[in-house]
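Handout, page 2. Input:
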Amino acid sequence: MNVYEPLQKLGITLPPVAVPAAAYVPYVQSGKLVFLSGHIARKDGKVWVGQLGRNLGTEEGKAAARAVAIDLLGTLQAAAGGDLNRVQRIVKVMSLVNSSPDFTEQHLVTNGASELLAEVFGDKGAHARSAFGVAQIPMGACVEIELIAELA
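Output:
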């Protein structure tokens, strides 16, 4: 399966690797595993600010998580030497959702990223996952996601 076919069908153009906002690198490879640093949600080129359960709903959070997944794929493509077909498996996704104390649908928000990964990679996109509600994310972003993948 060529992963670029579903991306094309979905009308997704992968972005270049974003410049880190602090003292870290976008990804690190160790053996066959590549660890992608957390990526925050962006909308129209700006940080997607908000808090789930206060001024954002679950569906908007899910869209934000999908947007993060697209950015992660851009970074993963760079980590894979420019070829996402080298990805053998999406191993793990960790999602941080900027949440009010009573918001409990972090898992549904994170589905925005998980569902896109499954659409793009098929069975190779099935992954282990954690989704956490947090009091705040850098720059007020509504969602931050990191990813671990195995490369060929």
